[in-house]
Amino acid sequence: MGKLENGRWERFCQEYAANGDKGKKAAIAAKYSPKTAESQASRLLRNVKVRERIAELKKPIQDGLGITAEYGRDRLKKEAERESKGASHAARIRALELLGKDLGMFAEKDKGDDGPTNEDLATVFAKMLSATSSGDAPSGTSPVAPQSGQA
Questions:
Q1: Tell me, what DSSP letter sits at residue 18?
Q2: Which among 26, 29, 51, 62 has a CA at the least distance from the CA of 41?
Q3: pLDDT at residue 141 in the model
Q4: For the stretch 93-112, what's the b/e string if a residue is b when 16 or more beta carbons lie within 10 angstroms of its beta carbon?
Q5: What are the structural domains of the chain?
Q6: 86-89: which pairs have CB atoms within 8 A and are 24 or more residues apart?
Q7: pTM passes above 0.90
Q8: What pLDDT was estimated at residue 114?
Q9: Alpha-carbon distance 44 to 46, whole Å?
């Protein structure tokens, strides 16, 4: 793909990719008004060319670090199941939440979906963690085992 013809878009993409996906900050660096930077970032991130350019800019970084979606899921699963001394309950719940989002387990309220809400699933995950740490869960079960057909 290469550089975008629109200089501000290109600068936004470079800043966004380099600074940890901070849209407002990238928009300001690309000379958008600080007052409208957040909405400009949102608009730019919906643009297919901008998204493709950001992915192109991030690829060498991801490849160099060996970070893939599979790696991320594996690390989140390990964190969710970590129960050693000093392990954070909040970190386990957050890891389960991120895994659930990745697997599409959460329904969004504003779309009128009748599925479980984030709060419902967080409660279920917390109960699952509690059961596994107290030994009440059936042996061989995992609170983050992928659903059939998903991985």
A1: H
A2: 26
A3: 47
A4: ebbbbebbeeeebbeeeeee
A5: 7-65 (1.10.10.1400), 69-134 (no CATH)
A6: 89/129
A7: no
A8: 62
A9: 5
What's at 93, amino acid-wise?
A: I
What does the pLDDT look like over 40-83, one tens digit per residue? 999 999 999 999 999 888 888 667 766 677 878 888 888 888 87
Cα-based angle 93, 94, 98 (whole degrees, multiple of 5)? 120
Rounded to 10°, the helix 37-45/7-18 angle is 90
Under 8 Å between Cβ of 6 and 13: no
User: 3-state DSSP call for residue 35?
Assistant: coil
- Supply the pLDDT for residue 8: 92
